[in-house]
Amino acid sequence: MAYGGPSRPWCSWFMPLSCVACIAVFVYTMYVNNCPKNLGEDRCVFHDHLGRFSFQPRSENSLFGPSTATLKKLGGLSRNLVVYDGEIYRFFSCMWLHANVIHLLTNSLAILFIGVKLEEDFGFLRIGLLYVLSGFGGGLLSCLHQDESQQTLQISVGASGALFGLLGASLSEIITNWTLYTNKCVSITMLILVIGVNMAIGFMPGIDNMAHIGGFVSGILLGFILLLRPQYGYVSGPYIAPGYELNHKKPKYQCHQKLLWVISVVVLFVW
């Protein structure tokens, strides 16, 4: 389909680079964690193979990762540190940290599966902005939901908020560009199924579902703003054929696209 002239898919590099960055940060986190020094070699998981990079005891981190204290030190999200110490940077630093190997791998694979296609369609600038702002939105709701009386125990980390932002944006992209899809029902059914499964996982113990919800809502709103496509039949100026009647030229965007754009801007501003 043409959206105003010939176009080629963007080259996706932001999403793969984000995954590489998350992996690099996790390796650095384990270096800083240094379980053998803090707890003794005999208590660390896989010390014989990983040495300084070995994991915390399974009783503390059952899925192979660092201590909560290390995550807090490196930028994990904590309400008290944001509200009372003014460490706003934690809203952004927390999305590059991960609690364990399973957390890191599942997020990375999901981001590649969803984010690469979006970046190929809309470019790194829009998808990169959407990714970071959704992560911020997820962190914000997570922070507001944290129990202030238990701040010594609660640290939120992970790219899940940003990931759910990509899911939300995918949903709003289908809605706002509805006329461009040929298999509408299949597309939206598959996406809702993926969203439902991920939301269900979020209710498992130890999962910060508030970050998921905050990222998802942010992604939906940002998708309506950033992911508009010109409607089917629109032809941009440079590609108008000789003799083409400008009076019959279709508008670039439909009324529902403009309305959803305005509503989303207002809601984000109020939020």
Automatic annotation (TrEMBL):
Subcellular locations according to the entry:
Membrane
Reaction(s) catalyzed by this protein? Cleaves type-1 transmembrane domains using a catalytic dyad composed of serine and histidine that are contributed by different transmembrane domains
Q: Which GO terms describe its biological process?
A: proteolysis
The enzyme's E.C. designation: 3.4.21.105
The GO terms describing molecular function are:
serine-type endopeptidase activity
Keyword Zinc in the entry? The reply is no
Keyword Hydrolase included in the entry's annotation: yes
Q: How does it sit in the membrane?
A: Multi-pass membrane protein
Query: Gene Ontology cellular component?
Result: Golgi apparatus; membrane
Q: Which family does it belong to?
A: Belongs to the peptidase S54 family.
Q: What is this protein called?
A: RHOMBOID-like protein
Query: What is the organism of origin for this protein?
Result: Citrus x changshan-huyou
